[in-house]
Amino acid sequence: VNSPCSSLVDLFFPINILNHKTIIKKIEELEIIPTVAVSFISDVGMRPAGIINDHFKTGGMSEELAIKLTNKKLQREAWDALGVFNPKWVSVKSLSFLEVENLARKFTNHKVVTKPIDSSGSRGIFKINKLSINDKHLLEEALEFSIEGEIIIEEYIEGREFSIESFWNNGHCEILAISERTIVHDKSAFTIISAILPYEIEMIISDAVIKANQALGVQFGLTHTELILNKKNKPFLIETAGRGGGFYVFDELVKKVTGIDYSKIYIQQLMKNGTSKNLINQKNLVAIKYLPSRLGVVKSISGFIEANKIEGVKAECFVQTGDSTKSFVSDADRIGYILVWSDSKQELDELLIKTNSLIKIYYY
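The structure corresponding to this sequence follows.
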């Protein structure tokens, strides 16, 4: 009821996003004929949008495709068929002592990562250096974050992690941005920075992204893909999503990198107004640094006003003095961000350092 977006829409009804039957009933009661249903940057809304598209025959993303783009197990299975891009992996529902012992034997001498097959925002992800029966509680915790009650356990790949933003039109893929990610607590991005790469490496990444999404049936719209390049520059896919990257990646980073508002381009595509080939008219370098929470009460906040006066900087804080925050666990525990952009790598680095030194958040 207190949604911050309720004042921006023509009609607002507080209905659980997963309750697609009630949503469809409300649409029909209002005698609305939807052009399309879409979930721009949220995984949780994609399947309901697909169900609505199927019900009203809009031609938008189907439930079948939405499931593939939000289910890590189905993605791994599709990529296995390609014969490339997957680490060693299994999916499990049962976590008996015998099952965990079998898993430990299967991944002997391998670091592993646990992932719920259908969660987002780094929830339920744990890195385990040597899987044993003592880690059963971590597997059970990961399982709690899965709607379907299933998790993936996969070999941990050492290497550089990237996120790739793409726009698809009639099966043609346009790579909008390739960014390198630094990870905190082995699960959540701490910084996302425009990658400056040799042409050969860009082509390796682009080829993996295109094949990964084609294998799932992507023909139009946005995709956000994450992968790791190992020391031999072999790509290993982490996951892909049929939406823009969240936490200001799609709506800020992509816009600054390309000079194009792909929200408008995407809406034009959804409205079937056609999309001509978009000529990216600039190639800025962009960096996002996220501010993780910590356990305590916010005592003071400073530096954001000064930071936002600097050209090429945007910074925002999500908490206020007196707010209680918890220890950082997932993406949802970010309490702010710094966004900087420039056409120079040196200036980009300098802006990030300068802005970061200005911003102070103290706790009781």
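The longest strand covers residues 172-184.
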